[in-house]
Amino acid sequence: DSGVTQTPKHLITATGQRVTLRCSPRSGDLSVYWYQQSLDQGLQFLIQYYNGEERAKGNILERFSAQQFPDLHSELNLSSLELGDSALYFCASSVDGTGELFFGEGSRLTVL
Amino acid sequence: GQQVMQIPQYQHVQEGEDFTTYCNSSTTLSNIQWYKQRPGGHPVFLIQLVKSGEVKKQKRLTFQFGEAKKNSSLHITATQTTDVGTYFCRDSGSARQLTFGSGTQLTVLP
């Protein structure tokens, strides 16, 4: 158990819909990262937050947005969903934005 | 920007054979981390290398950081079926820290 909690574990929705994925980092970790992993692919960096502020942005689509709340949990919002958005979305946390990343078990999104 | 490349992308070995994956960069790496992702699982941190030429061992796994800090390797001796998974490297101490290498997917045939 990494200490990072992601919900929901599985989500099936239709094209054009909007979903929200939630992540609770490890206790004490200030930084949260979101990664997208399509089937048998690598880990594509989406966005990083540190102590409530956006720190870095990867190739995140404009249809996607995220935020980190004062209690340090984070949400990733995916809107106008397309078939190609089907993937495993991982949240990871670290103490200070560097160092070891602790990953959650992921949220598997299926868009039909 | 510069990426960290991993080779090979796929590797099939017979149980008991050795396995090596390489992480290469055209520019100097800051620190290297290695992660393992089991099929259906999430990435799990294995180790971090910091110093030029550093070698660390974890049971049958040997991790090396190149002298020029432009490459790193993970070697598994006498693979077991429990070694199956995808191994990722990550440059953890620079602006590239947000990205992972492309990964090497290891299959161990019993």
Give your account of this protein's structure.
Chain A has no helices and eleven strands. In chain A, the strands form two sheets. In chain A, strands 2, 4, 5, 6, 9, 10 and 11 form a seven-stranded mixed beta sheet that branches. Chain A has a four-stranded antiparallel beta sheet with strand order 1-3-8-7, with no helix packed on it. The termini of chain A are far apart. Chain B has no helices and ten strands. In chain B, the strands form two sheets. Chain B has a five-stranded antiparallel beta sheet with strand order 1-3-8-7-6, with no helix packed on it. A five-stranded mixed beta sheet of chain B has the order 2-10-9-4-5, with no helix packed on it. At the A-B interface, β10 of A face β5 of B.
What is this structure, in a nutshell?
By secondary structure, chain A is mainly beta. In chain A, 0% of the residues lie in helices and 51% in strands.
